[in-house]
Hints:
The protein folds into 2 domains: 5-16 and 93-232, Rossmann fold (3-Layer(aba) Sandwich); 18-87, Orthogonal Bundle (DNA polymerase, domain 1), CATH 1.10.150. It has 234 residues and is α/β, with parallel strands linked by helices. Strands 3-2-1-4-5-6 form a 6-stranded parallel beta sheet, with helices on both faces. It starts with a strand and ends with a helix. 46% of the residues lie in helices and 11% in strands.
Amino acid sequence: xxxxxxxxxxxxxxxxxxxxxxxxxxxxxxxxxxxxxxxxxxxxxxxxxxxxxxxxxxxxxxxxxxxxxxxxxxxxxxxxxxxxxxxxxxxxxxxxxxxxxxxxxxxxxxxxxxxxxxxxxxxxxxxxxxxxxxxxxxxxxxxxxxxxxxxxxxxxxxxxxxxxxxxxxxxxxxxxxxxxxxxxxxxxxxxxxxxxxxxxxxxxxxxxxxxxxxxxxxxxxxxxxxxxxxxxxx
Length: 234
């Protein structure tokens, strides 16, 4: 067996944008005459799609809305996020991630983003980071009905890659996921995908038991060892 594809989470793996998301969602809540987020932010937002996150935040405040109204709120949030991102002098991309993505691309691995974030936000982030052309497909919150830890996003990414490259015959066992959350790692495990946990969102020791490999930063990843692991598996 050989490794054919590397699948990246976006928020918390490629870009450090938690504060931008929080500020954008708080603006939506305040516009709805609701209290901004408190301690529940990390509980409902990490690894969740924006739609699931906002729906849960509204529910916690006793507000029930239709899917149509929720979609309008998400659209407003996405506009706010993209405006804030565009105004930044420099994109808050994690150190070493661009070099790592370039390395994977130059080694002919297929690359994908699998995230619960809104597609337009992901596309803008990749474009501003000048790394959008390296990715073959993006599976975002717009494309899935179930957030991580459900494996739907990962399975869809594999399906997309197989449609783009009919001769690839990509299997989950030939993929590597890079995640920063427990929900993301559970999603990859449920999809039968080997995973690297990067300690951007949670401490190293908390992630270590949940992943096949755990690193503090991309520069620590001994990719030759991972490649040999895949080659050793029948």
